[in-house]
Amino acid sequence: MTAERKKNIIKDYEKLSRVLLLVFYDAMAVVLSAFFALFIRFDMSFGAIPHPYLDAAFTIVPFTILLTWAVFKCMHLYDSLWAYVSVRELCLTVAASVIVVFVQMVAMCIVDPFYVPRSYHFIFGVFFLLFVAGARFSYRALRILRHVIGLKNQENMTNIMLIGAGQAGRLIIDEVNHADELSARVACVIDDDRAKKGKYLRGARIIGGRECILEAAEKYHINQIIVAMPSASRRQQREILNICKDLGCEMKIVPGIYQMLNGDVSIKKLRHVEIEDLLGRDPIKVNSDDIFQYIVGKTILVTGGGGSIGSELCRQIAAHSPKRLIIFDVYENNAYDIQLELKKKYPDMPLETIIGSVRDSRKIFQVFEQFRPDIVYHAAAHKHVPLMEDSPCEAIKNNVIGTYKTAFAAMTHGCKRFVLISTDKAVNPTNIMGASKRLCEMVIQAFDAKIKEGKADEIPQLFTHLTKDDTINSQVQQALKSTKTEFVAVRFGNVLGSNGSVIPLFKKQLAEGGPITVTHPDIIRYFMTIPEAVGLVLEAGTYADGGEIFVLDMGEPVKIADLAKNLIKCSGLIPDVDIKITYTGLRPGEKLYEEKLMDEEGMKKTNNELIHIGCPIPFDIEVFLGQLNDLMEAAYKNKENIRELVANVVETYKPEYMGQR
After folding, report:
1. Does domain 288-496+526-555+595-649 have CATH number 3.40.50.720?
2. Does domain 154-273 have CATH number 3.40.50.10090?
């Protein structure tokens, strides 16, 4: 027998023991209530009770006991958790007791109206209710008393400030009061509703609004702050958290309104305050109707579908009823994870998971030939700036040539729309990763221009490894003449929590006790959550006519040093005291700030004020396509002058480390 099985048997035995004890107690309550009903009726003199009344009362007792068990069982009074009894259980207990007394009275009256004195039934009912309700509610009272006494005897007690005197706050206080294993108490409650000031919530005093937070933290020696405002907007929560973050207290938050509606608010469900909570804006909303109409019933391919952005694209696409979703990724572990997730959540959706590289022309052609996707979201790319600075040729091979080959395959197989996931690092790039993404944007702009001119058949197919079958056959040539594929790019900044971003790194360093490393005290970045970015990418795709570079409004830029400090403060620690922040210097190719648009680009509006269109910078397409072939050859030969070659193509690229491989 396994340890888990033994543990379950012990729990079942304990539960059965408690129920049997309660059943026995209820039987004794009936007996004692019958005795006291006659004892009180006859002036508390046992000898004065007539024997016929005594015999009659105790003759009906077995029937009343069986009736009590049946009624209490039907009303689930043997199934309740009496450590958490509430008004509901009290009402059920009263109702069950009234039913038992009433049925007993009717039964006795049917047998003989003068079986017992008329006042017997009332007195019996009072004692019966006192016995059955008192025992059940005394269990909770004893637990609370033991908890309070235990707290008074503990030196290292956690004093909690609860922010939010609503339903969620009440549930949190109840659990803190009943948790024997928690050496904690809710010392005070904060709520901006002036009508609640001075009142008590489950024994905890509501001392005022947010203006009292700093004073109360010192007065009550607060160690932990719990924000229980699940229905508040992100902006309201941020304002509260920004007041609390400098107090040096551990901060936790009730995740969302849905948990309160599901009755799922508990200490275990609280999460620590994250950096995202302090960024300062409500979640970005997208037009789900437009996205649904655009995606529903279509076959969609996501390259890099296992990555941070790619996997979120897959999640949101799957939620909009596509005809088929194809996940394409070179890394099998990530692809497998998102495959399992989507199969579990959408078992009826046709899903294909294919392992392969966008650099493999024949594999890409095979995928397009087999599934004929209507829409492609091209998220496959090398994105890590310092790593690409060390391996610049890989950035060209994977990002530029991979994009070219995937776009070429889409164009020749009747794909309706090709959406490139780009980055703000493509604007005036100082690193090879940003320059490679600008080259990707130029690829899709060149393809779109050729299609609109009706000259798509002039676009050369790039072959990295020339073999006998690597020639453009007549079917491909014919397809290029009639292709109508719309090529667009969507450009945005950093996404919180993505692979390789600073937040996961900071959290890991914090867990290790520091130091947290920041490259420069003044470095700033634009941030957006992964779901927000992907939602805007999907909506931008609905606006496309071909050739646009959509730019997502990332809000105000954030100092990376401030992110690090806030993360430390959210953990109840003090920056540069408990956790050191060290500045390591800018890495190769890294800028102090990122730009969303090049100086030469203008701005056009869309129906969504957070999505803009940058006007394309003109360039000689014929020259560019010829230069791409030279870039490809240099990259596959791992030439050391690859940066100079890229700079000749991307005029806005200003590499800081010429000659570094």
Report:
1. yes
2. no
- Tell me if residue 605 falls in helix, strand or coil: strand
Instruction: Give the integer Cα–Cα distance in Å for 652 and 475.
Output: 38
Query: Which stretch, 24-28, 109-113, 370-374, 412-416, has highest mean pLDDT?
Result: 370-374
Interatomic CA distance for residues 328 and 335, integer angstroms? 8
Cβ–Cβ < 8 Å for 536, 284: yes
Contact at 8 Å (CB) between 327 and 318?
Answer: no
Phi, psi of 228 (to 5 degrees): -110, 70
Dist CA 6 CA 259 (whole Å): 33
425-441 residue pLDDT tens: 888 888 999 999 999 99
- Are the C-beta atoms of 480 and 455 separated by less than 8 Å? no
Lookup: tokens for 200: 């008590």
Sheet containing 250-253, strands listed edge to edge, beginning at the edge strand earlier in sequence: 200-201, 204-208, 184-190, 158-163, 224-227, 250-253, 271-272
**Would strands 224-227 and 250-253 be described as parallel, antiparallel, or unpaired?**
parallel
For residue 544, the one-letter residue type is A
Retrieve residue 244's tokens.
Answer: 């609390």
Cβ count within 10 A of residue 60 = 19
Measure Cα distances from 572 to 251, 510, 575 in Å.
7, 12, 10
Cβ atoms within 10 Å of 593's Cβ, excluding its own: 11
**CA proximity to 606, closest of 555, 545, 528:** 545
The residue type of 161 is: M
Among 268, 145, 158, 279, residue whose Cα is nearest residue 220 = 158
Residue 354's closest CA among 346, 341, 366?
Answer: 366
Question: What number of other Cβ atoms are within 10 A of residue 587's Cβ?
Answer: 12
Would you say 634 and 642 are in contact if contact means Cβ atoms under 8 Å apart? yes
- Measured distance CA(473)–CA(479) in Å, rounded: 10
Question: CA nearest 485: which of 371, 615, 374?
Answer: 374
- Return d(Cα 434, Cα 130) in angstroms, integer: 77
Give the model confidence (pLDDT) of 292-340 as tens digits.
788 899 999 999 999 988 999 999 999 888 999 999 999 999 999 999 9
User: In a 3-state reduction of DSSP, which class is residue 573?
Assistant: coil
pLDDT of residue 268: 57
d(CA 608, CA 540): 9
DSSP string of 177-238, one letter each residue: HH-TT--EEEEEEE-S-GGGTT-EETTEEEEESGGGHHHHHHHTT--EEEE--TTS-HHHHH
Cα angle 496, 384, 620 (rounded to 5 degrees) comes to 110
Beta partners for residue 528, in sequence order: 495
> How are the residues of the chain apportioned to helix, strand and coil, as percentages rounded to the nearest 5?
50, 15, 35
Whole-angstrom distance, CA of residue 258 vs CA of residue 231? 9
Asked if the domains at 154-273 and 288-496+526-555+595-649 fall in one CATH topology, the answer is yes
Following DSSP, what letter does each residue of 451-490 receive, concatenated? HHTT-GGGSPPP-SS--TT-S--HHHHHHHHH---EEEEE
Per the CB < 8 A criterion, the answer to whether 377 and 542 are in contact is no
The residue to which tokens 């992964």 are assigned: 530
What's the burial of 15, exposed, middle or buried (CB within 10 Å: 0-12/13-18/19+)? exposed
Q: How do the domains of the chain map onto residue ranges?
A: 3-149, 154-273, 288-496+526-555+595-649
Contacts of 91 (CB under 8 A, 6+ apart): none
Phi and psi (nearest 5°) for 324?
-155, 145
Taking the model in full, what pTM does it have?
0.65
Rg (CA), the chain: 35
